[in-house]
Structures are given as structure tokens and as C-alpha cells.
């Protein structure tokens, strides 16, 4: 192995022990598929090691070039601000190391195929045979205060709808933006479809994914005449791993272009006109490395300056950026 070349996988982090374990499986896939690179990983919030620890470990092992890859689906505040802040600070303090930052997974044909397989598996799990024209696909995104990232969930849903031939598709989100899961499903059941497939467009499990599944169970209990199936999230599907490795290759071959066309930090997007030029700084210091639910109970509340409090008893579905969302302004 050429230890001068390294890959750093930058994860979101979670209070969920299972989510952290699934992310660590992803890191093992990287090590198997990239035998010529030193590979390490870290988290933006909650779980350990934090991203800085992973970078320092690579440095200690002699890395001279580090490719940092966001372990995230879309470029919202974490990819646009929080991760670059971590990476740029390390690079500024270590001028002898070439530090490169890759792009998010984004919308990719391989991820769509992986999503389709998860949805097909949910269909096969049911003893009932049903035509897709009688099925509504509910795609659930994480939800952020970045409308560009949120719109990507709608694009994924549309492509799955047309590509797989469902009768209808709806989109909802686990937090921050609207519609949320419960009202989204309440609306969906009114459309008259015999089956609804709830598909969390997430990489890993966690408290938010469990909340989505709980919402599906509640909707099923309230609507016994509609079959509601729960599809698995993406996890370490082989085509997810292939997409991550493509992001590494893009950095090495000069094709690493983040989609900034509708980025609220660079363009005056409707509802976020004051966001361009916002300093590129992180907002996760208060939750960096504080641990998962497996380490300790952390049920106290804290305020994020949005006029409402959150308990640490859940996974964060937002980006911690202090800009009002359209919903909050209403």
C-alpha cells in the first residue's frame, strides 16, 4: 500500500449505534476496494471518531495526499459548509499535505438502480400481487433548509416513478421542511391507491429512518384497506459503493464538480435572498464527538436559535444553519 495516498470518509454521525455500525461497514468496503490507499473515517456530529481525529490519524501514518469524500447523498449545508470548514482548517494547518475535497453522491444512475432494487424487494415481500399502476410510491428524504437539496429528492422520486411505472408518486421529509411523514402519508392514502410503498431515500439507518417506519406503521393501522409496505434504505448496496469510488476517481482525474447552480449560498434563491456570501464555517461544535445512545443517555434539550428547542434524544434532520426556512417565516 502506498501510504502517501489516503481517503478520508466524512460521515454525518448519529445517536444511533446501528447507524454508526453501518457507516463503519462502508469504510470496510472502501478498504477492500482501495487496497493502495490508507483509508480512515470520521463523523461530523455525535459519534466518534470525529473527522479531525481521522485526518490526524492519516497524517500520523504518513499521508501526503488525502482525498476527503462526503458520506452524504446531497449537497446541503453539511457538504457546502460544515465539511469544507473541517477540511479547510486541517489543510491550512498542514501545508505539507495535499488535501482534496470530493463531491456528494448526488443524483446518479447507479443510485437509482440501487433504489429500484430496494423498492422491488419490498414488493416481493408482500404475498399480494398488485400492478404498479395501482401503487403509490412515497419517497422520503431527510429534509434540510436548502431547497436545492430538497428538490433533488423530488427528482429522484420522479425518475423512479417514470422508470418503474408506478401509478403515482409523492414526496415527504423526515424533518425541517414539508410535508413531513405523517401528513404526507395522510394525504397519500386519500388518493385511492391500493398499495403505498414507503421508501426512505437514506444511506443508513438511524432514529430518523425508524421514525419513518413508525409513521408507515401508524398509517397502516389507520388505513387497513390500503397495503403499506416499507422498503429498505440504500445502505451498502454494491452500486452505492461503486458511486462512492467514482467520487474518488473524479477527484483524481479533475472531474470533481459540485452542483452549485441553485446553491442558496451562491445565488439569490427565492426565500433565501440573504444567504449568498454566508461565511463557510461549521456549526457542529456543540455535538462533535459527544457520543451515541450506546455511550450515555443524552435527553436534555437545547435551542438552535430557531425559536424552538430540540432534545438530544433524536437524530438531527437539519443542517444547523441559522437561516429561516420558508416554513419558519410563514
Backbone shape: elongated
What is the CATH topology assignment of the domain at 109-230?
Answer: Rossmann fold
Main sheet record: 4 strands, parallel
CA radius of gyration? 20 Å
Mean pLDDT across every amino acid position: 84
CATH class division of the domain at 109-230: Alpha Beta
Reading the helices and strands in chain order gives EHEHEHEHEHEHEHEHEEH
Q: What distance separates the N and C termini?
A: 55 Å
The poorly predicted ranges are 298-330
Number of helical segments? Answer: 9
Q: How many beta-strand elements?
A: 10
Helix percent reads 25-40%
Report the CATH architecture of the domain at 109-230.
Answer: 3-Layer(aba) Sandwich
Written description of the protein model:
It is a single chain. This protein has a domain at 109-230: Rossmann fold, CATH 3.40.50.1400. It has helices at 17-33, 51-60, 77-93, 109-124, 147-164, 181-189, 207-222, 238-252, 326-329, and strands spanning 5-11, 38-43, 65-70, 98-101, 135-141, 168-173, 195-200, 227-230, 301-303, 309-311. The protein has nine helices and ten strands. The protein is of the alpha/beta class and 330 residues long.
